[in-house]
Amino acid sequence: MPGSLHVRNLDDDLIARLKRRAGRHGRSAEAEHRIILAQALAGEEGTDFLALAAELRALTKGRKHTPSQTLMREGRDER
Questions:
Q1: Is residue 32 part of a domain?
Q2: How far apart, in whole angstroms, are the C-alpha atoms of residue 69 and residue 50?
Q3: Using CB atoms within 10 A as the burial measure, which of 12, 36, 62, 71 is most buried?
Q4: Which residues contact 22 (CB under 8 A, 6 or more apart)?
Q5: pLDDT tens-digit map of 34-66
Q6: In this model, does residue 68 exceed pLDDT 80?
Q7: Which domain holds residue 41?
Q8: Helix (H, G, I), strand (E, B), or coil: what is residue 28?
């Protein structure tokens, strides 16, 4: 099912460069944007959650971790 993606707060220079690139390829800026995203993500694998979680645990091993309920309580208390 096709979806939509809205990108906000782009630098004017970046938009101009996207439009120039699209013009060189004979496409609209939107079509060029789709192609750039597809190319950038083509090498990405659909890594499953467990693999990502294991990678995150390895990256943060040995660090002090604050329990999520503590962070949530602090956030509520700040309101």
A1: yes
A2: 22
A3: 36
A4: 28, 29, 31, 32
A5: 999 999 988 777 778 888 899 998 999 998 888
A6: yes
A7: 12-78
A8: coil
